[in-house]
Amino acid sequence: MLPISLLYFALTLYFLPYLCYANTELTVLMDIKASLDPDNRQLMSWTESGDPCSGLFIGVACNEQLKVANITLPGRGLTGKVPGSIAGLKRLSGLYLHYNSLTGEIPKEISGLTELSELYLNVNNLTGEIPAKIGNMTSLKVVELSNNQLTGHIPRTLGGLAMLQRLDLSFNRLGGPIPASIAKLSQLKFLDVQNNTLSGFVPTGKPTSNKPYVQIPVNCIRHHIRLHYALAWTSHIT
Ligand SMILES: *[C@@H]1O[C@H](CO)[C@@H](O)[C@H](O)[C@H]1NC(C)=O
Ligand SMILES: *[C@@H]1O[C@H](CO)[C@@H](O)[C@H](O)[C@H]1NC(C)=O
Ligand SMILES: *[C@@H]1O[C@H](CO)[C@@H](O)[C@H](O)[C@H]1NC(C)=O
Ligand SMILES: *[C@@H]1O[C@H](CO)[C@@H](O)[C@H](O)[C@H]1NC(C)=O
After folding, report:
1. Which ligand is nearest to the CA of 79?
2. What is the residue extent of each domain of the chain?
3. What CA–CA distance (Å, rounded) separates 230 from 180?
4. For residue range 187-208, what is the model confidence (pLDDT) as tens digits?
5. Which of 133, 156, 157 to mutate to test the pocket of ligand 3 (most atoms within 8 A of CB)?
6. Which residues have any ligand 1 atom within 6 Å of their CB?
7. Is the full-model pTM beyond 0.90?
8. Ligand 4 pocket by C-beta < 6 Å: which residues?
9. Among the four residues 28, 58, 109, 205, which has the most C-beta atoms within 10 Å?
């Protein structure tokens, strides 16, 4: 017969992952809070003994499986860095942290959020480069990074975001060319890259009857490129 202690051990091992899993998202939220609201002024309702899906955690919405689905905290006076641990919120579909005073880099771990559909980090003080691994976030429909201090090149990997509809990188310090891969984004309806120090042309892909070939030199338009990709998009520009 199996000794009781061994049975107990086996049972513990069996249930341990579930116990841990239940607490993981709360741990991540507390980590986010420690980073973005160290003085506990905005996120007082996020407590270690609370339930993120109770509806009491300000800005947190859960899905039917009781996983955090949206974090909505625009204009809340948040500071500090977005922690890489945010990737632990595996079911996150919307991250709305615009109009705050976030600093530091966009953590490359964010690429683990493969169900994220809307990323709003615009109007903050984010620095560093846009992580190339953003190309792994294949659910992304909206990427709003305008009005930060992002540097480096626009990553070529953005061209892999097949569902992307809106890409706003305006008012940053991005340099180099707009990668040709952008032309692959067949769903893209809005692209704004104004007020950076980009060079070259706006890539438009191969000409078709709907999309005649145009070459728009980034420099000619200077800091003002606002393209509305649509069937008739060329008429907007020319
Ligand atoms: C998350 O936000 C999206 C977009 O606003 C919305 O459609 C969805 O219903 C939200 N999900 C939850 C669980 O609140
Ligand atoms: C960014 O930092 C600058 C300089 O510290 C500050 O003046 C500005 O208000 C900040 N912007 C945001 C959105 O926090
Ligand atoms: C993430 O993207 C990199 C290249 O950018 C690729 O090598 C890697 O396989 C991708 N990972 C997943 C899980 O898709
Ligand atoms: C572009 O940004 C710079 C620096 O932030 C600013 O001085 C300039 O006025 C902006 N240009 C336009 C056209 O908005």
Report:
1. 2
2. 4-237
3. 18
4. 888 888 888 888 877 776 555 5
5. 133
6. 61-63, 69-70, 93-94
7. no
8. 195, 223
9. 28
